[in-house]
Design goal:
Number of domains: 2
Largest sheet: 7 strands, mixed
CATH superfamily of the largest domain: Spore Coat Polysaccharide Biosynthesis Protein SpsA, Chain A
Number of helices: 5
Radius of gyration: 19 Å
Helix content: 10-25%
Order of helices and strands: EEEHEHEHEHEEEEEH
Distance between the termini: 31 Å
Number of strands: 11
Strand order of the largest sheet: 5-4-1-6-10-7-11
CATH architecture of the largest domain: Alpha-Beta Complex
Structural class: alpha/beta
Length: 219
Amino acid sequence: MFAVIPARSGSSLADKNIRMLSGKTLLQLAVEEAKKVEAIDQVIVTSDSQKYLDSVSELGVQVMLRPAWASTSQATAQDVLDTIVLPSSCNAVVYLQPTSPLRRAFHIESAITLFDANPDCEIVSVVKVRQYPEKMLSKRADGKLSEALGMSGAANSNRQEFVNLFYPNGAIYILPRTDSGFAFANQDRIGFLMDYLTSVDIDTEEDLLMAEALLSNET
């Protein structure tokens, strides 16, 4: 089983993947947690930035300079994965984005245990939705509010009346090998549930501040 850690240099938050948290970069944190997982045979860091690759080259990982076509803001995770040739002995890929600094080795291990019990399924880490879409409001042209989903009275309903919903938090994806290789959303998916605090995903300066506070409380 191989782990792939993507670290594109371009972002709305400058150099996001090498921003510092508690004395380490997001990329370094991701690498260190992945390397603690016994089931992971090799960690691959792929980036369009040689500087990013050099920053982790001494951590015992394989580094790969990503081609330009897979490094644009429109490039998908599948595009990134398609640039990597994995050995036939690799039965699964663990895809770990550096922007989930509260993801720990035990989360990855638990997700792998879930995969081992469901080897033909993709494992996707998820977090429970805290704001129910049924309650969301939209503003009309006249400035007045109405139910966004057209469900009259939903905004004043009890949350117990709504179905539980989850969304991918971006922390962990585990993809099985198929006849066509490794592909996202190409097979049944099973959710690996993480809590709200460990699901912090770095996209803004505010996210960094929240993650720093949470990491400080761990020590």
